[in-house]
Amino acid sequence: MLALLLAAAIVQTPLPLNIGGRVAPAPGGAYDFGWPGVYFEGRFTGPSVTVSVDPKAEHLAISVDGERRVELKSPDTTRVTFADLNPGEHTIRIDKLTESQTGSAQFGGFFVEPGRALPAPSRPRHIEFIGDSHTVGYGVRSTSRDCTESQVHDLTDTSQAFGPILAARLDADYRIEAFSGRGVVRNYNGIAAGEPLPVLFPRLIPGQAEPRVTADDPWKPEVVVIGLGTNDFSTPLHAGEPWADEAALRKDYRDTYVAFVQGLKVSRPGARFFLIAGDTFADDVAQVADRAGATAVRITDMDRGACHWHPSAADQRMMADRLEAAITAP
User: Fold this and answer.
1) Looking at the structure, do residues 87 and 157 belong to the same domain, yes or no?
2) pLDDT tens digits, the chain, 330 residues: what are they?
3) Are 237 and 244 in contact (CB under 8 A)?
4) Is the same domain home to 213 and 261?
5) Pair 77, 108: CB distance under 8 Å
6) Residue 137 and residue 308: Cα distance in Å, rounded?
7) Mind telling me the catalytic residues?
């Protein structure tokens, strides 16, 4: 009897979760996750908390009470315990920093013992960000435009991209569905033909065709921000691609983009849509916004100092500024 009592005493209590982003259920109550910027949060009282997670190839940041305590950068199942806390109320959070175009990481849960689980954090607003490498925060930690493939992975940090920055300012929970190199109808330099972002969008894990989002998905954001078009137009058409010329590509882009937004409106009733317009496709986005009942937000004059001429940390903050002004305008 004594042995049974002792065993019961050391059982850790799982915390209720606030999950930001798409996840796929895994065995043992765990979650697989692959889209950029996925996060998990919990609240508790007590002096310690344990995190169970397998980063696999990804970098994950763990924060306690808003302070980043550790970044996990090595694979295999990890249990990290923070045991230096005061006995009051605390918040624990884990953020996915890197982009996984294939594979996924796995989250096993937050656990307390001793201590008491509290209701998970929640926020009054909900924002969805859909896009490409600019939304991912591709190589944003880099101070050089010259980066190797491994440096791009390691220096990507979606928490420094405009989406999470803007969501924090507006006290909003968020989801990000973004994939570097993808467009509305055409991907960078014509790669991965037939798999632009709208084709990947229904997936729970971006690199896996299944599982997919179901019709009963409860996610109902009030604001949706989409930034797609750079990859459609940044490289010239090649022989064998399905568009006769750039004019045909631009028409297909506009028509497909309008249909994509209109489809999202059905599953996100009442949401306001904001479409980012870059330098080379601003007129196209303006037409899409007009036809689809959205707002075009022109973003230009970036220094593009991160990996491979991508938006720098300063650019990301500027993008958040422009979007915040548009979203909060009377």
Assistant:
1) no
2) 333 333 344 568 999 999 999 999 999 999 999 999 999 999 999 999 999 999 999 999 999 999 999 999 988 778 999 998 998 999 999 999 999 999 999 999 999 988 999 999 999 999 999 999 999 999 999 999 999 999 999 999 999 999 999 999 999 999 999 999 999 999 999 999 999 999 999 999 999 999 999 989 999 999 999 999 999 999 999 999 999 999 999 999 999 999 999 999 999 999 999 999 999 999 999 999 999 999 999 999 999 999 999 999 999 999 999 999 999 998
3) no
4) yes
5) yes
6) 12
7) 133
In a domain? residue 181: yes
Tokens of 11: 């059982």
Tokens standing for residue 183: 């467009």
328 is written with which tokens? 């909060």
What is the spatial distance between Cα 292 and Cα 237, in angstroms, rounded to a whole number? 27
What is the Cα–Cα distance from 220 to 142, expressed in whole angstroms?
Answer: 34
Phi/psi for 79 (5° steps) reads: -120, 115
Report the sign of the C-alpha dihedral through residues 48, 49, 55, 61, in that order: negative
- Helices 246-267 and 282-292: angle between axes, nearest 10 degrees: 40
Q: How far is CA 85 from the centre of its chain?
A: 29
The sign of the CA dihedral 253, 213, 272, 316 is negative
Amino acid identity of 190?
G
Rounded Cα gap, residues 15 and 1, in angstroms:
28
Cα atoms in the Cβ-side hemisphere of radius 13 Å centred on 8: 5
Look up the domain containing 234 and give its range: 125-328
What are the b/e assignments for 96-132, b being 16+ CB within 10 Å? bbbbbbeebbbbbbbbbeebebbebbebeebbbbbbb
Are 141 and 111 part of one and the same domain? no
CATH number at residue 77: 2.60.120.260
Q: What is the pLDDT of residues 162-218, one digit of tens each?
A: 999 999 999 999 999 999 999 999 999 999 999 999 999 999 999 999 999 998 999
